[in-house]
Amino acid sequence: MGIKILKLSNGDVRFEADVRIQGVDRKTATFDTRDAAEEFIRSVTAAARTAKRSSAVYRLAQKAKIGGQRTYDRALLADVIAAFVESPKCSARCAKDLIPVVNLIGKVTVEQANEAWTESYVAKARVTKTHIGTAYSYSTIRGQVASLIVACKWWAKQNGVRDPIIEISTACFPKNWENKRDRRLEDGEYDRIMNRISHRRNHSAHWRCLVDLCLETGARQQELVLARWSEMTRDDQLWKIPAEHTKKKKERRVPLSGKARAIIVELRSLRQPGDERIFQVFPKPNWVSHHFGRIVKATGVVDFRFHDLRHEAISRMSIDKPKAPIKAIMEIVGHQTYQAFTRYSHLRDDELIGLLD
Fold this sequence. Notes:
Helices cover 50% and strands 8% of the residues. The protein has helices spanning 34-64, 68-74, 77-86, 92-98, 115-126, 138-158, 189-198, 204-217, 221-225, 258-270, 285-299, 308-320, 326-333, 338-344, 349-352; strands at residues 2-7, 13-19, 27-31, 232-233, 238-241, 252-255. The strands form two sheets. The protein has a three-stranded antiparallel beta sheet with strand order 1-2-3, covered by helices on one side. Strands 4-5-6 form a three-stranded antiparallel beta sheet.
């Protein structure tokens, strides 16, 4: 599967899309633009996945009529996943975790999916490139494994199997796999990043506002990039982030500081007629992550990601907002447990010195 660039004798360039999917006839087509070729690949791949899921749903529906332990054990795990994703019991989160899994698990049955198989699956996922060109992280794989277990439990229920033995687990994960980050902005790094942004030819003001609004609110990248003007309430004093934009799929209310409100005022001055999104100039969250990485790299700042701005923001809130109880800060930034909050709050030595005087 890929795109081949064809140079014609008259100097023109064409893009040949070649789609090869196991069990599906090979499809090729030539287009004038790369975007058109990529869209062809996406549409063919999506159609193949839909057909695969539909056939799996039918096969498992017939098997479930027989039911029992034997039927449960011998079903292909790929079929179970496809059928579960189509069922009303599958949450949006599970569906997101499981759709990429189908292409990695092979022809393993539910019975064969044990700890040894999980280990081989994890190893394969760790070297498989995602749609953004990076390997699957352990945190992503953990979500996939958890959703696999949910799918197996669903299949057991379809067959009337009580207390199914499920050996899929994260026991094979290496120690300290979570790779907890504690990266914050060091002296001068914010100025270097902002200086680089100011020299951008396109949307430098939007980039500056995006970074500063993240530092003022601690919001996640997708919450910022997908934010709409309708979410700003109470004269821009309160930002109501809808459930569909949040990680936990729960609405969140974020009070806006004086600086945050000033940023919103500037963004309103940049707004074009018909713009519903606040950061309309940024196509999608992953695009922002990629281009922010390029901005940071050009400054010489090492190992700083857009998500690290959230760490910086929450750390600042912990020390700079004494009137705000920890519970309130947790609700504002979307942390449901104190353990999650402490992973993001990292205080420096200079911030601790004199704190108890």
